[in-house]
Structure formats: structure tokens, C-alpha cells
Amino acid sequence: MRPRVLVIAGPTAVGKTETAILVARRLGGEIISADSMQVYRGFDIGTAKPTPAEQQGIPHHLIDIRDPREEFSVVEFQTLADRLIREINARGKLPIVVGGTGFYIRATLRSYTFAELQTDGSVRAALYAEADRIGAPALHRRLAEVDPEAAARIHPNDKLRIVRALEVYTLTGQPISRLQQQAGDRYDHLLVGLQMDREQLYERINQRVDRMLAAGWLEEVRRLLAAGVPPRRGPMANLGYRELVAYLRGLATWEETVDWIKRNTRRYAKRQLTWFRREPDIQWVDAGAGPEAAAEAVCRLAAGKWPDLVEKSGNA
Predict the structure, then answer these.
(1) Residue 201 needs a FRET pair 20 to 30 A away by CA distance; which of 123, 126, 169, 281 works?
(2) 248-273, pLDDT tens digit by residue?
(3) Element (H, E) at 144
């Protein structure tokens, strides 16, 4: 029998964390974070990383596992998630993969195999220098010319992944997307997507940005920069953090910065929904009524797929 895994995916601010914790409590689950930013230590407020209190005693994995000066790839995520899924199943628990990083989730569920890709420090350094000179979006446009598939899934400001994709193309003459092969399903899985009315989601995003800023997000960015985290690459180049770095550099007013974070987060949520809607076996749950109702719906789907699991936890 293939290991079981439940996946709860969806756009930012839709309520994935709260819903997943409720589901884990009912079904005897452990949570594996599929968030490309929550792996980094110190990136807490801006990633909506659940605090120990918010985790409610539910084991959480793949959070705070990397120094922000280190790189973390989808290959590493796939390897670590695969091991955890098997270990959690062996303990008689249900692994619940939760997050909005679509490529991480797809790499978990599908039989991606990643070719041994060449690396060259001098090529990478030259690409980073060029990105600093002309901007990541300009490099992204170049990537779109040679590898439109990779460009479609990489944000124009994601300097790290743009550079990596162009490095591979420079060294091999092949698009990185072609060197990543996909086969069939790897697990006995249930993929659930959370969604809600667009206006409601956008309002939740706006309110969450306000809460994060009130909780000290700008101070978090200052601390990370003071600790030596690079300001224009790696996790600091990601959504929200890059806008706050620009503010600290005097490139925007506070009002402009807040507006840009909200606007860019709304656009990111739209891209996430587009990605997940391409998944052929995703089952959508309306999260508009709150996490309790969403968790109930997810548990009903789990009961239909794995009745023995639900019976064991007393929730048939």
C-alpha cells in the first residue's frame, strides 16, 4: 500500500493553517509545511508562521529548518517531505501537507525526478550581479524567452529561482523545466483546496497585512538585515519583505509601501488559485464560513476516502 497523505492547499490568507490544525486534531494528524518561506528561521511575522501556542500541540514539520543565508530548493523539500510522510504513516498518524507553494505540493504528490543539474559559482555570481544592475524582472523576461514554462511558475521578483533557472540553461543549453520530469502519483493522496469569494479573500489579505505590520513586521526586517541577511536575494527578495526593504532604503513612503504589499499579495493569491485550479484531482472546499466549517468539510472528504482512518479517530 502506498503511504497516505492529505494535502490542504490554497491561496494566502484563506485560512489553511487554522483549518489544518482542526483537521489534525480530529484525524490524528501531523502537519508538514509546504511553504517556501516558513523554512527560514527569523522570517516569522511576514510568513504567518504559526507560533507554538497557535500550533496547539500538533506536531509541525519543515518550519525553521534553514538559516536565511542558505538556499533551499524544491529538491530538498521533496526529499524531506517524502521521509516525513513515510515516518508519520509508520507511526499510525496522518501526514497533512499544508501550504500555498504550488510547486512544492506538486513535487510531493507527483513522481517528479530532478536531474543532476550542474552548478557553476562564477556563472551564478555573474547572473546575480546582472540582476542587481538591471533588476530581477528584466532577467525574468530573458528566462521567459528560453524557458516559458519555468518563467510561468517563477515570480518576476524571485531573483534566486530566476538566477538558478538561467544558470542551468547557460550550463546545459536545456530549460530547467525540461530537466524536471513528472510521472504518476506517488501517494494515496487527497488534495483539498480552500477557496472563498474573491472580495472576501482580498479583504482578509488587506486586514492580515495590517495585523502583521502592527505586530512588528518592519522591526523583524530590520533585525534580519542587521544579522547579515542579504537584502536583495534569497528570502528577503520575496513578497512583503522586498517592499519593506525598499522602504528602509528610502525608495517609497510608508503609505506606498503598505499599498504595494497589499496589492502584490492580492496578485499573488490570484496566481496561486490559477496554479491549483490546474491540478486535475483537487477537491474544493468553501472556507468563507470560517475554519470550523472548512475543517468539517475536509473531514467529510477524508471519511469518504479513508473510512478506516476516520473510524480509528472516532469521527466516523
Answers:
(1) 281
(2) 999 999 999 999 999 999 999 999 99
(3) helix 136-146
pTM: 0.82
- Are domains 4-112+184-312 and 121-180 of this chain identical in fold? no
Cell of 244: 519593506
Neighbours of 3 (CB within 10 A): 16
**Which residues fall within 8 angstroms of residue 98, CB to CB, at 6 or more apart?**
7, 8, 9, 16, 17, 20, 31, 32, 33, 34
Closest CA to 47 of 84, 101, 4, 6: 101
Q: Where are the domains of the chain?
A: 4-112+184-312, 121-180
- CA–CA distances in Å: residue 304 to residues 9, 75, 280, 299: 19, 32, 18, 9
Q: How far apart are CA 68 and CA 236, in angstroms?
A: 8
- Selection from 159, 103, 101, 98 nearest residue 130 by Cα: 159
Q: Pick 121-180's CATH classification: 3.40.50.300, 1.10.20.140, 2.40.10.120, 3.20.20.70.
A: 1.10.20.140
